[in-house]
Amino acid sequence: MTIREKAEVLDAAGLDRALTRIGHEIVEQAGGADLALVGIKTRGETLADRIAEKIAGIEGKRPAVGALDITLYRDDLGSRVEQPQVRSTEIPFPLKGLTVVLVDDVLFTGRTIRAAMDALMDLGRPRVIRLAVLIDRGHRELPIRPDYIGKNLPTSRRETVAVMLKEHDGQDRVVIQEPEDHEPPSGSAATGREAAAKPRRTVRKGREE
Amino acid sequence: MAWTRKDLVSMQDLEAAEIGDVLDTAESMKEIATREIKKVPTLRGKTVVNLFYEASTRTRTSFEIAGKWLSADVINFSASGSSADKGESFLDTAKNIEAMSPDVVVVRHKAAGGPALLARHLRCAVVNAGDGAHEHPTQALLDLLTIREKKGHLEGLNVTIVGDITHSRVARSNIHGMRKMGMTVTVAGPPTLIPPACQEMGVKVSHRLEEAIAHADVIMMLRLQHERMTGGFIPSLREYSRVWGLSLDRLQQCRPDVLIMHPGPVNRGVEISPEVADSPYSVILDQVTNGVAVRMAVLYLLAGGKAA
Question: What is d(CA A41, CA B74) in angstroms, rounded to the nearest whole number?
Answer without folding.
Answer: 30
